[in-house]
């Protein structure tokens, strides 16, 4: 309220609104005509002969310091603005398909990106050539670009070949699966006791090659792995079954936890016997029933706890 | 001939009017640093000098006194102007002097030594100033040359903040004892005026700190007891 009264003393009643007065005052203050600010004193105002004009100074790109590990250097070959066509003369030929077939996936992956980077460099240089320079010298660049493109197409071809081969193998495997499994089963079960050690290694290879089962379960246990575990443990148990009291008391594995104990048992009759003994102890603790839906969860839990145990043991030892 | 001379006199008078009208106290009270701002036009490459953060339509009228088709009076749209350089002087009086000096150099280029200036400019095949669209790079290059001659003419220590390192040209043009170079911080390019405001604030605080130190030193020297002769 007081401030309004103060304003009234400045702006008399009946005059224009305060906002209008303020705007016009500001406008007048800024206009040249009414600008009454005096030129500053005690400052050098005369420059006669003090300054001389100089020729224009062109910018210089070398003033800009670029880090050696700047990511955009990947678009330059050895930090050169533009390679001479002679530098590309001995660039070589595209990779042959027969050469690429001998390479692993990682090698092909690396080679693909090497080619891609080189093509990026070339397209930058080609852009410069087409825009600023004559087109006459660009043949070497185009040829190299075509060679790289061909190599990349051949890499795709080889990978496609492998993909088709893999798919064909999977299809034929589905058809011959029962036959292959049956052959292995009969061979495994009918073999002599003297070949136990060898058969153990064979079983490991079989489970890895045909069932894709890694005993360390790096990515956890899937439903497919549960079925594979059942198959392997059944094979093992059938081979090493004996007439001992423990075995008679044991009968057959009742749930997935017991099956997994047999799966993990050492590949020998002693190993399976020990597993059976520990299963009998486990049965004494009256464990709750495991339904088929819970099997995968239970196995994942077992694998996790075992891994944690191993880690803690390793820490204790170190 | 009489008309031409009249035009020249008019242009010189305009340059006289364009000189700094604000006293150093004005900038001190406003909390502005001792800066002179060089703005470049993105469309035409023309350059204007300013004592405040931003271009001023009045400055445009007074700094482009003899416009022709190759050097039109540029637009005052703020979006086509970018700060090219900020010259930091030791104090506000010297900053005003530097601003006036730059106008003096502009006057020499546009009016007094126009022929010489035109000779140095790169020409196209028609004999006109080289251009691409409306852009003539020579004006920004001349502004850099003017900053060089300003530093040499005034002889003050000066720090110039550049928008790009490349624009200041070859190091051989600059007197290393007089001029230091730095870059305008680019941490927030969208808020380029706030960056300039921060620079100005920093320069003002530095200047004030120096003053305080001087005042303290003079106080201490006044308090010191006079040595007693034995």
Structural class of chain B comes to alpha+beta
**Total domains of chain B:** 1
Q: Which strand-content bin applies to the residues of chain A?
A: under 5%
Q: Termini distance of chain A?
A: 81 Å
Mean pLDDT, all residues of chain A: 85
Model description:
The complex is a heterodimer of chains A (about 325) and B (about 230). Chain A contains eleven helices and no strands. By secondary structure, chain A is an all-alpha fold. Chain A folds into three domains: about 1-30, no CATH class; about 75-165; about 205-315, no CATH class. The longest helix of chain A has about 50 residues, at about 140-190. The mean pLDDT of chain A is about 85. Chain B has about 230 residues and is an alpha+beta fold. Chain B has one domain (about 25-210). In chain B, about 35% of the residues are buried. The model of chain B has no long low-confidence stretch (mean pLDDT about 90). At the A-B interface, loops of A face α4, α5 and α6 of B.
In short:
Chain B: GO terms for molecular function: DNA strand exchange activity; single-stranded DNA binding; structural constituent of ribosome. With 318 residues, chain A is mainly alpha-helical. Chain A has helices spanning 2-10, 18-30, 97-101, 105-132, 139-190, 196-210, 223-240, 245-250, 256-264, 269-284, 295-317.
Write the layout of secondary structure elements.
The complex is a heterodimer of chains A (318) and B (230).
Chain A: H1 2-10, H2 18-30, H3 97-101, H4 105-132, H5 139-190, H6 196-210, H7 223-240, H8 245-250, H9 256-264, H10 269-284, H11 295-317
Helix pairs in contact in A: 4-5, 7-9, 9-10
Chain B: H1 2-18, H2 24-29, E1 35-41, E2 47-50, H3 57-63, E3 81-88, H4 92-112, H5 114-120, H6 138-154, E4 158-162, E5 179-183, H7 192-223
Parallel strand pairs in B: 4-5
Antiparallel strand pairs in B: 1-2, 1-3, 3-4
Helix pairs in contact in B: 1-3, 1-4, 4-5, 4-6
Subcellular location (chain B): Mitochondrion
Family (chain B): Belongs to the mitochondrion-specific ribosomal protein mL67 family.
Pfam families (chain B): Mhr1
